[in-house]
Specification:
single chain; 73 residues; alpha+beta; two-stranded antiparallel sheet
Length: 73
Amino acid sequence: YWKQTESGPVEAEGFVDDEHIVERISLFRETLNSEETSAEEKAIQIAWILHLVGDIHMPLHNTSRVTEDTPDG
């Protein structure tokens, strides 16, 4: 994972690999199925699921940054 700075891209510190789109969608589904989740929170979860499902099929959301300096992404 990298972030853009004024001097160019740098490796981001503290990136958590176990939080990703598939994990988040599963978490949102669990909260939507819970009777303890409020209607307001369920509305937010549904909006996030729609957003993520829309993003997951976008080619630029599913790529690695590959350059001469980082040929393996």
